[in-house]
Write a structure and sequence with these properties.
Distance between the termini: 35 Å
Bound molecules: dihydropyrimidine-2,4(1H,3H)-dione, zinc ion
CATH class of the largest domain: Alpha Beta
Helix content: 25-40%
Low-confidence stretches: none
Oligomer: single chain
């Protein structure tokens, strides 16, 4: 394997920024310093930022949901990841109804292994609190699947009642696993949806009214209560947190010694609910929905104050045709498949709206996009650029401006929800385990180049 020397860059770590050279050997960071080693490839990174490759812990590739399969399979989805400097995704195994989770794990590996161009790990959705489901927790953890998503929404599909949530949290905790919670009160969402439809309020903006913030904070409060009854050994994070209220609830539990954390997405930090009112409002339908400008401001302040542990994208891509259910008219809001693209724009959105607007520093950006993510998901070789770690890097020219278009992105769809927006922070180059995987928008590695990375449990 060839070695590589990256000279003169600003190496951004969670603890600070150092202006040094970085030598990579056998796919790993070998040393950092003022170096003049001979290397097969020497990259001059003067004026550029070198970040640890991002870890996007929230993707849905080839995800069967709301009677549609997401448009990004593991090939397109991980190309999008590399395009945005994401070198590892953690995707959600989604067992079909009645399917044994271990069988679903094998299915996910078979789908992903031949297609991935980035590295990847897996979480598993538990769609039942029954014995078969719970008995799969330990064997899944042995396979490196250490986090389990539990849903409080989507009745008759994914929703678990409080009793099942309790049982699942207990079982996962017994084996030191991590709970990923989708916190929305599904019963109330269904009630509000029914009422809106009865009043013929069907356009995409009513998606927002069917899922008000209180539906999320109620569920956050309830799950924190349930998990706290299980005890202080529980490790839980709330995925796609869209309200600052839910962040504050988990913070209060942390102050009491519980390990409850929040993830949010860059999409929540940049879009408000008025996007649903536009011509392409249906393309933005995802759950929880985008909220108000005030919510965005408050959420950013929690990111600034280090109260959000991790950023994930909730990359869940549907084509325009799928969003319209293959018809010509926009369907009622509750029939629009939920999900938006996100993995390729994590870095430019956080860089432009966060770093350039003085809401976060570069070390904070690194903490919430790689260091904390690797720790939470037990990805021991990832998330840092110290000697011994996988040489996963995103190299960014901080001054370069990009006008976002579907053509420059790598997803398998022909639109971007940020079309026309000017952003900084897209990487010029993504390096995966010491090899150039993306340069100037070109993906340089083939399907199957990525590796499955096992998560390892921790106390
Ligand atoms: N929300 C989405 O928008 N898509 C997938 C599942 C989810 O919870
Ligand atoms: Zn979810
Ligand atoms: Zn999701």
């Amino acid at each position: 394997m060839s070695d590589m020397l990256i000279k003169n860059g600003k190496i951004c770590l969670a603890d600070g920024i150092i202006e040094k050279d970085l030598y990579i050997k056998d796919g790993r960071v070998d040393k950092i310093g003022s170096l003049n080693d001979h290397a097969d490839e020497v990259i001059d990174a003067r004026g550029k930022l070198i970040l640890p490759g991002l870890i996007d812990g929230h993707t849905h590739m080839e995800f069967p949901f709301m009677s549609e399969m997401t448009a990004d399979d593991f090939f397109y989805g991980t190309r999008a990841a590399l395009g945005g400097g994401v070198t590892t995704i953690v995707d959600f195994i989604t067992p079909s109804k009645g399917q044994n989770p271990m069988e679903a794990y094998k299915e996910w590996r078979n789908k992903a292994d031949p297609k991935v161009v980035s590295d990847y790990g897996l979480h598993c959705i538990l769609r039942s609190g029954g014995r078969e489901s719970l008995d799969s927790v330990k064997p899944l953890i042995d396979e490196g699947v250490i986090s389990f998503k539990l849903f409080m929404a989507y009745k008759n599909e994914l929703l678990l009642d409080d009793e099942s949530l309790y049982d699942a949290i207990k079982e996962i905790t017994k084996y030191s696993g991590v709970i990923a919670i989708h916190a929305e009160n599904g019963a109330i969402v269904d009630k509000l949806t029914e009422e809106l439809l009865r009043d013929n309020k069907v356009s995409p903006v009513y998606h927002y009214y069917s899922r008000p913030g209180i539906v999320e904070t109620e569920a956050a409060n309830r799950i924190a209560t349930i998990a706290s009854i299980v005890g202080k050994a529980v490790k839980m994070y709330m995925v796609h947190t869209s309200t600052y209220g839910a962040v504050d609830i988990f913070r209060r539990y942390r102050e009491m010694g519980y390990h409850f954390y929040n993830e949010t997405t860059p999409n929540y930090l940049t879009n408000d609910y008025t996007v649903f009112e536009g011509k392409y409002g249906y393309r933005y339908v995802m759950s929880p929905p985008f909220r108000t400008q005030d919510e965005i401001k408050q959420l950013w302040s929690r990111v600034s104050n280090n109260q959000i542990l991790v950023i994930g994208s909730d990359h869940c891509v549907y084509s325009d045709q799928q969003k319209k259910r293959h018809g010509t008219a926009v369907p009622p809001f509750n029939e629009i498949p939920n999900g938006t693209p996100g993995t390729e724009t994590i870095l430019p959105l956080l860089f432009t709206y966060g770093v350039l607007n003085d809401r976060i520093t570069l070390p904070q950006l690194v903490s919430i996009t790689s260091r904390n993510n690797a720790a939470l998901f037990g990805l021991k070789s990832k998330g840092n650029l110290l000697p011994g770690y996988d040489a996963d890097l995103a190299i960014v020219d901080p001054k370069k401006k990009f006008k976002v278009s579907a053509e420059m992105l790598h997803s398998n769809i022909d639109y971007s929800i940020f079309e026309g927006e000017e952003l900084q922070g897209f990487p010029d180059m993504t390096i995966l385990r010491g090899e150039k995987a993306m340069e100037d928008g070109q993906i340089l590695v083939k399907a199957g180049h990525g590796k499955y990375i096992k998560g390892e449990t921790y106390i």
